Amino acid sequence: MIILINFYDLTIDDLAAHLVASGFKKFNATQIFEWVYAKSVFDFNQMTNIGKELKAYMSENFSLLDLTLKTKQQSQDGTQKFLFELSDGFSIESVLMLQDYGVSLCVTSQVGCNMGCSFCASGLKYKNRNLSVGELVMQVISSEKLSGQKITHIVVMGTGEPFDNYDNVIKFIKIVNDPKGLQIGQRHMTVSTCGIVPKIYDYADEPIRSNLAISLHAPNDELRTKIMKINKKYPLEDIIEACKVYFEKTSRRITFEYILLSGVNDSIELADQLSDLIRGLNAYVNLIPYNYVKEFGYERTDMKRAMMFYDRLIKRGINAILRKEQGGDIDAACGQLRMKSE
Ligand code: SAH
Fold first, then answer.
1. Is 50 exceeded by the pLDDT of residue 46?
2. Under CATH, domain 68-330 is a member of which superfamily?
3. Residues annotated as catalytic (active site), given as ranges
4. How far apart are CA 29 and CA 10, in angstroms?
5. Interacting residues of 129 by C-beta distance below 8 A, sequence separation 6+
6. How confident is the model over 304-311, as a mean pLDDT?
7. Looking at ligand 1, which residue's alpha carbon is closest to its atom 24?
């Protein structure tokens, strides 16, 4: 049996190297990339400007498959959640959101997650494996086909810790950013991490400048370690130091995500600690309403208290926004992805 190469695993440079090694021309890679990603032609035989021999070679060696859709749910606010089945039977979810500024896709980076944050449904199942580059790209292709929408923004904020699957996530970003392909702008993509410090340094050195978001959720080590076990390994001081270096190298504004958990991390005193922690970093805080997960004991902070927290940050000179919730009615909101279809 011949095992086909997943076309979506390759950057344009990978494809060019492969084709040149097989006796074709480098520019053929550009042609094929444009057909697939810019013109949405998913059959090599329909690529009219490439030769017969190359068409046959591509068809014999490469696959252009879709992810298998198991279920699709649509929220009242237009959010769509897709549950896909992978070739080895595992399931993953992607969430498409209609925003004022475009269409955003939240992609999953791993099957399960090992970070074990105490509030997040995605960590209820341990990591089975990383997603391949192709599986990351296929979430975009398949979601576009299923929704009929052109995806303009990507957030790597689905199940999994993207910096625990670093190389594949970076390659994915390169592929979807390629000017000959989907052309999703660097500034339109955000990778979110729970704070894997060495990878923040690596990310600062990447030529592609997609955005960085850090799931902070607590402004001191005692509390953060209580709710996010990764903090034991990478405490706040190390994260903040890495953020400084990241900002010096990239001049890009960092987002700190902060879920408001009632009675846990939402006091005025903690708002003050948070302000002191991140002052001078050119960052902003994304305050996220907690989405209920029945296995955990947390409650969402009510709107009045959330506004007080927000106002306090603003008063102390910190940029902040209170994020609106999307897809809550279909369990597609942050922290609710758990690979269930029922
Ligand atoms: N592992 C990465 C990517 C996941 S991003 C990270 O931790 O950043 C998903 C975001 O949603 C993170 O900020 C995460 O902390 C947050 N989140 C998790 N559970 C949530 C919940 N129940 N309600 C709201 N946000 C949640």
1. yes
2. Aldolase class I (3.20.20.70)
3. 93, 334
4. 10
5. 90, 110, 111
6. 96
7. 290
